[in-house]
Amino acid sequence: MKRNVVDCHGLVMLTLLPIVFAGLSSVAQAQATVEPIEGRLASADVAAGKNVFLQCAACHVATPGNGATIGPNLWNVVGRPIAGEPGFEYSESLKQAGGNWEFERLNVYLFDPKLVAPEGRMPFPGIKSPNERAQLIAYLRTLSDNPVALPAAVSALADSGVADAGDDPEKWQGLPPGPGREDVFYRCKACHSLMIVKQQGLSRSAWDESLEWMVEEQGMTPIEDAAIRDRVLDYLSTHFGRK
Fold it and tell me: HSE of 70 in the Cβ direction (CA atoms, 13 Å)?
C-alpha cells in the first residue's frame, strides 16, 4: 500500500474505495446511493401520498386494531422497530435488518426492498421517484396515534416547486388522462404490468368480474368505496374496453 502512495495517488483511490465500501453494511451502502427524501418531507403532498399508498393496499391494511393480511398492518409503521408488528411472521432477512423504520430507512426500503432485506419475501419492485417516496412516507407518518416529528432541516428541493407529473405519459406509463387514472395506476401497478391492463379490451361487466376474481382468487384488497370502484370500472371500460 505504501508503494501505491509513492507511485500514483489515483491508484490508491482505486484501491481504497472498495475497502471502504466493503466495511459498510448493505443498508449504509444503499443510503449512500438512494436519493434522500428528508428534505422533501416538509412539503410533501400527503393527499398524493394516499394515492401512492394504493400500491401498498394490495397487501397491507393501515388501520388501528386490525390484524395482518398478506403483509403486516402498517398503522404506526413510521418509527416502529423493523419486523416489529406482533402476530406477523417476518422473513429471517428482515428480522436481521435491525433498527427502526426511520424516514430514510423507509426511503431505502421503498426504493428497493432487497437493499434492506436481500432475502425478504416482499414482491415489490420499488418506487423510483423520490418525490413519490416522500409523498408516501409523509402519508404513512399520519397513520399513527402519535405521528413522528418531521425532520427539522428542509432542503432547497422542498421549496423548489418540483413539478407534478400532470399528463406526462412517461410518469403514467401510457395511461390516458381522465377520471380514475390515478386509482388504476396506483392500484394495478402494485401487482401487474400496466401493459397487461392496457391489452385486455374487456367490457365493463368483464372488468367488474375481473376485479371480483382478483379479490377472491388472488387476495387483492377489495375496493370498498362504491364511488371509487365505479370510477375505476368507468376508466377501464372507456380506455381499455371492448372495441
Answer: 15
Same domain, 176 and 141: no
Per-residue pLDDT of the chain (243 residues; tens, 9 = 90+): 333 333 333 323 333 333 333 444 545 555 567 888 888 888 889 999 998 998 888 889 888 888 788 889 999 999 999 999 988 999 999 999 889 999 999 999 999 999 999 999 888 888 988 889 999 999 999 999 999 988 765 433 334 444 444 455 456 777 777 777 877 877 776 666 667 777 777 788 888 888 888 788 777 778 877 888 888 888 888 888 765
CATH number of residue 213's parent domain: 1.10.760
CA 178 to chain centre: 23
Q: Distance between CA 27 and CA 105 in Å, rounded? A: 8
Q: 221, 61, 86: which is closest to 143 by C-alpha?
A: 61
Q: Domain of residue 177: give its range.
A: 172-243
- Same domain, yes or no: 139 and 180: no
Number of other residues whose CB lies within 10 A of the CB of residue 222 = 11
Q: What CA–CA distance (Å, rounded) separates 131 from 141?
A: 15
> Burial level of 10, CB count in 10 A (0-12/13-18/19+)?
exposed
